[in-house]
C-alpha cells in the first residue's frame, strides 16, 4: 500500500525525526511504499495567499478562488504536488510535536493550503464521505506532558479531545478514517531506551495501519443527526461532550 | 485599558477585516487603547526556526533555545516586538476565520513563536497562573457553518470544544482569563445587514470585555487535580468530557 508520511520538526536530530526514520523503515519492511513530506526540510510555506490561485482577481474569497483553481489546474505547483501525493496515498501518517496543543503552524498550513474546496470540502459529502474516502490517517504526537495528564479527566484533555479539529474536523470531515492517535509522552525527558520503545510502539501501530478499527465517529448521513445537524435526543442521551459523536466512546 | 487586537485574514475586504475595523472603532469609543497585529498585513512568518534564537548552536531544543534567547534578549526582533505588545496589553482580542476547525496557520504560528519558554510555559506556574495572569482573551471567529451545528451536540462540536487548545491550552495555560468565544456563523452567506448585526454583537462583547465572567476552568493548584494531574473522582464525577474541566459547564 502507499503511505504519505507528513512530518514537521525543525531539528533533524529530534525525537520526531528519529521516529520518522524508524517508522518509515518499519513501513517499508512491511512492504508499503512511503512518500515523504518533511515540511521543514521542504521549506514549506504554510500561509494561504492569493498567489496560490494565479487566475484569481478582485476580492479574495478563499473557497471560491481555490475551487476554481482546482478545477482548472491553475494552482500553486507546490500545492498541486501535495494534492497529488495525498490522492495517491492509501494512508496518511501525520507526525509532529504538540505545540500549544496542536500541530506546528507549518503543518496546520499544509491542510489550509492543500485541502482546497472541491477536494477537502464543498464536494457535497463530508463527515465519513468525501473525496478522501477510503484512506486512513494515523497521527503520531510527541508531547512534553506525562501520559496520565493527557488522558480522559487529565488536565490537558485526552489526545483525542485535543486533536478533535484534526481527527474529526479534518480527517473524518474529508472522508478519511481517523485512527486512534499515538502519543509519545514525556518527550523532553526521553533517553535512548525510551526512544527505542517509542519506535517499537510506532512500528506495532504501522503493522495494523490497514486493519485496525478506526474511531467510530458518526457519519453525517447515518441518521444520528437531525436537520440542524444536532444529535437526536436518543443518541448518546444527555451527553454534551465530544464523546457523543463517537459511537465507540466509553460512557 | 490596553487591547492587543490580533487578526488573520488574507483579504482586506473580508468580513473578518470589516469586523476588525468596526471592533477597533468600538473599543476606542469605549476609551481603550488598541494596538494591532494584522498578521497578513505584517507579512508575519509563522514558522519557528533556529533563526529565532541567533545565539543558538548545535542541536535545536526549541524550549531550551527559546528560554535562553528570552533571558538574554537575543531573539528575532519581530518576535520580541510581539512579546512587548502582549506584555503591555490588558486584553487580547484574537480574530480569525475558522479554517479546518482552528486558526489559520499564520495565527497558530504567532503563538508558536511568541509564547517562548519563560513567557508562555516553563515559568513554574500554569493553568490559571503564569506570566500572563491578569490579562483577558476574547476570541472572535467567523465560520461557514450554521450556528445550530456548532453547539453542544452539533456535528462540529461547540466552538468552546473546538477551540480547547486555544482557550484552555494557550490562554488559560499562560494565566490569561479565557472569555466565552464569539461565533459569527454562516459567514459565507452574510449580507450587509447581517454584517452590521455581527458588528453590533462584537461591540456589545467589547463593552463587557473587562467585566464579564470568564470561563471557569479549574486551576492546576486549586485542589481539583491529583498528583498525576487527573481530576479527583469527586470532581464532576463520571464526566470524561472536556466540560469536566470547566466548573461552570452545564451537566
From TrEMBL, chains A, B:
What protein does this entry describe? Answer: NAD(P)H-dependent oxidoreductase
Family (UniProt): Belongs to the NAD(P)H dehydrogenase (quinone) family.
Question: What GO molecular functions are on record for this protein?
Answer: NAD(P)H dehydrogenase (quinone) activity
Organism, as annotated? Streptomyces genisteinicus
Enumerate the spans annotated as Flavodoxin-like fold domain. 1-202
Q: Gene3D superfamilies given for it?
A: 3.40.50.360
Give Gene Ontology CC terms. cytosol
For this UniProt record, the keywords arranged alphabetically read as follows:
Oxidoreductase
Pfam family, any one: Flavodoxin_2
Amino acid at each position: 500500500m502507499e503511505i504519505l508520511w507528513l512530518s514537521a520538526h525543525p531539528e533533524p536530530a529530534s525525537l520526531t525525526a528519529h521516529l520518522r526514520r524508524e517508522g518509515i523503515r518499519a513501513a517499508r519492511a512491511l512492504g508499503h511504499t512511503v512518500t515523504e513530506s518533511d515540511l521543514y526540510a521542504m521549506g514549506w510555506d504554510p500561509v494561504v495567499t492569493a498567489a496560490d490561485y494565479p487566475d484569481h482577481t478582485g476580492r479574495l474569497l478563499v473557497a471560491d478562488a481555490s475551487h476554481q483553481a482546482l478545477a482548472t489546474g491553475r494552482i500553486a505547483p507546490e500545492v498541486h504536488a501535495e494534492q497529488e501525493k495525498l490522492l495517491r496515498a492509501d494512508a496518511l501518517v501525520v507526525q509532529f510535536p504538540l505545540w500549544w496543543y496542536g500541530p506546528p503552524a507549518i503543518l496546520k498550513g499544509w491542510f489550509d493550503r492543500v485541502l482546497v474546496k472541491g477536494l477537502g470540502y464543498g464536494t457535497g459529502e463530508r463527515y465519513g464521505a468525501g473525496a478522501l474516502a477510503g484512506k486512513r490517517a494515523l497521527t503520531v504526537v510527541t508531547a512534553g506532558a506525562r501520559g496520565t495528564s493527557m488522558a480522559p479527566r487529565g488536565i490537558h484533555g485526552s489526545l483525542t479531545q485535543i486533536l478533535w479539529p484534526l481527527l474529526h474536523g479534518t480527517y473524518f470531515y474529508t472522508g478519511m478514517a481517523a485512527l486512534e492517535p499515538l502519543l509519545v509522552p514525556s518527550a523532553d525527558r526521553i533517553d535512548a531506551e525510551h526512544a527505542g520503545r517509542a519506535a517499537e510502539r510506532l512500528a506495532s501501530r504501522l503493522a495494523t495501519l490497514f486493519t485496525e478499527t478506526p474511531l467510530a465517529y458518526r457519519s453525517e448521513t447515518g441518521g444520528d443527526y437531525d436537520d440542524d445537524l444536532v444529535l437526536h435526543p436518543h443518541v448518546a442521551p444527555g451527553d454534551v461532550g465530544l464523546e457523543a459523536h463517537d459511537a465507540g466512546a466509553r460512557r
